[in-house]
Automatic annotation (TrEMBL):
One term under GO cellular component: mitochondrial matrix
GO biological process, any: regulation of mitochondrial mRNA stability
Domain annotation RNA-editing substrate-binding complex 6 protein: ranges: 71-245
Record-linked InterPro entries: FAST_kinase, RESC6_dom
Protein name: RNA-editing substrate-binding complex 6 protein domain-containing protein
GO MF term set: RNA binding
């Protein structure tokens, strides 16, 4: 019933009605579902966070935390990160349960990657747990798919955790046949960001080439957003590496066309400008003439004619 509920209000109603019957899986699923239902609607999310039924659900999650299985732990962490809501009362019970399952090596690759991703979003950096997750990821690296790899590395990079032991193995995994070829734009740009923060142009040259190729017109460039392309430009510039062949020109053309259609956000413009300057590319097009200047130029041209 919880999974089939049409919206967050329906989920919370069910939770209130069945509160005494719910187990740890049920409450974790309920939290996961309300996060999904409010993911793209901030007004709904803000309203839900003030709802007494939601607060009651949080109490249930806290009570059931010691019984949460590995999947439930990752579901709960993902939900809090997606809602960008991390109650202080949840910190100790959830981190304790993460530690419990790490000790028994019970987490699957997708659980580890989602937990790291959630830690990064929530700006939570339990270093001892990160070290254990890194070690367990190393021992299971062949079971990580592209999404797992991207989430894990991106999370470590956002937390500025130098996963030096893991990076070589994860790079080998991503560049192995059939892995990066199945990647989505968000995974490619997240990988680029992570390598720029955690890696180096020399050690990670094969991965950088693979990222550039996947993000080229011969790959899936048309599916990228301008922000994702800016991220790749920024990553290569940070590492003082140049995308191979005509790929740099392709990226610049995509971002320029997007900017001319709709100006980039201020942060993206700053990152793009710095990257282009570092890569020896012109940046004038990031500052198109103002309407008044264009009209003045047109009048002057007409007068001269």
């Amino acid at each position: 019933q919880i999974v089939k509920a049409a919206d967050f209000d329906s989920v919370l109603t069910l939770v209130r009605q069945k509160r005494t019957e719910l187990n740890s899986v049920n409450v974790a699923t309920a939290l996961h579902r309300v996060a999904i239902h409010t993911k793209r609607n901030r007004a709904d999310r803000d309203r839900m966070l003030r709802d007494p039924r939601f607060i009651s659900l949080l109490d249930s999650v806290q009570e059931c935390a010691p019984e949460c299985n590995p999947r439930s732990v990752s579901d709960v962490m993902w939900a809090f990160a997606t809602m960008q809501h991390w109650p202080p009362t949840m910190l100790k019970p959830m981190l304790t349960q993460v530690a419990v399952h790490l000790k028994s090596s019970a987490f699957e690759p997708q659980h580890l990657s989602l937990i790291i991703w959630a830690f990064a979003i929530l700006q939570c950096k339990p270093v001892k747990l990160l070290e254990q997750i890194e070690m367990q990821a190393m021992s299971n690296i062949d079971r990580f798919n592209m999404q797992n790899c991207a989430n894990l590395l991106w999370g470590f990079a956002k937390l500025n955790y130098q996963a030096d032991a893991l990076l070589p193995g994860l790079t080998a995994r991503v560049t192995s046949p059939g892995v990066l070829s199945e990647s989505k734009p968000v995974e490619v740009s997240d990988l680029a960001f992570a390598v720029a923060v955690l890696g180096s142009a020399e050690k990670d040259a094969p991965l950088l080439d693979a990222i550039a190729t996947r993000g080229s017109s011969a790959g899936i460039l048309p599916s990228f957003t301008s922000r994702q392309v800016v991220t790749m430009l920024w990553a290569f510039a940070r590492l003082r590496a140049t995308p191979p062949g005509a790929i740099l020109s392709e990226w610049v053309s995509v971002v320029r066309a997007s900017h001319e259609a709709k100006p980039l956000l201020a942060a993206d413009q700053r990152n793009c400008r710095r990257a282009l300057e570092a890569l020896g590319q012109e940046t004038e097009w990031l500052d198109p003439p103002k309407v008044e200047e264009e009209e003045g130029a047109a009048v002057a041209a007409a007068a001269e004619a």
